[in-house]
Amino acid sequence: MSDLEKTPADATHAMVRAERVHKSYGLVEVLKGIDLEVKQGEVFVLVGPSGSGKSTFLRCINHLEKINAGRLYVDGDLVGYRQKGEKLYELKDSEVALQRRDIGMVFQHFNLFPHMTALENVIEAPVQVKGETKAAAKERGMALLERVGLSAKAGSYPSQLSGGQQQRVAIARALAMQPKLMLFDEPTSALDPELVGEVLDVMRGLAEEGMTMVVVTHEMGFAREVGDALVFMDGGVVVESGDPREVLSNPQHERTKLFLSKVL
Ligand code: ADP
Ligand code: MG
């Protein structure tokens, strides 16, 4: 059986499936053949030194970057392409937009709309992109703010909130689109240490509810307690992967050992 016959059927079992994914910026190859699989309902932790390609990989999943070679599937659908027989056709912008609606992303620097209140941030996409009525979006938005412990801050602007509060609003905003997959790119790296816990608690709650999550983080305690799978990336390749507790307590590769000795 050829790869092309095999992959689409297999891909339906995974939320994310990467096969020999390559990505270059100009002449610089940043992802050098990534193979991995994120299962439904799994908390998948991605760790690695700065510059190893973690953000680039998340951006490829979320259609913010286009891969140069290999195949990338989200929930069984090829990212950026449609397959007919052996041929690939690039998706139209409208089709890409449809795929992106189902993926929530949370960034290191929150990226809230500064001129909107917390609630306005949360209801923006459901109203503008999904065409929800403002009343319905507000009701759901308030429930989401409650879920992240911020119903009292609905009318506050980002500048009036702490970093931890802003990040929790950002999570609520991503959830408002009812995503099937959440991507977190170092969500606590910009926070003062005393604010990290409140964000990790929200993420832990999401995990318990069964959300599929890909989390780039240096929080190894979180990886150990909440993670179902862990991949260590370096230089654009997957160096080592497995059960987080296994990899963290018994790393097999020198590069993994060196990295963990710096972050643990
Ligand atoms: P990580 O998130 O693991 O720190 P990144 O994915 O951000 O790594 O970056 C991987 C490499 O790709 C780095 O060397 C970075 O400088 C480079 N890179 C990232 N984005 C771009 C871009 N838009 N143009 C050119 N090079 C980039
Ligand atoms: Mg990064």
From TrEMBL:
It comes from the Bacteria. Keywords: Amino-acid transport, ATP-binding, Cell membrane, Membrane, Nucleotide-binding, Transport. SUPFAM superfamilies: P-loop containing nucleoside triphosphate hydrolases (SSF52540). Residues 16-260 form the ABC transporter domain. Its main location: membrane. CDD domains: ABC_HisP_GlnQ. GO terms for molecular function: ATP binding. It holds the Pfam family ABC_tran. InterPro entries: AAA+_ATPase, ABC_ATPase_HisP-typ, ABC_transporter-like_ATP-bd, ABC_transporter-like_CS, MetN_ABC_transporter-like, P-loop_NTPase. It is a peripheral membrane protein. It is found in: Cell membrane. Belongs to the ABC transporter superfamily. This is Amino acid ABC transporter ATP-binding protein. The lineage of its organism: Bacteria, Bacillati, Actinomycetota, Actinomycetes, Kitasatosporales.
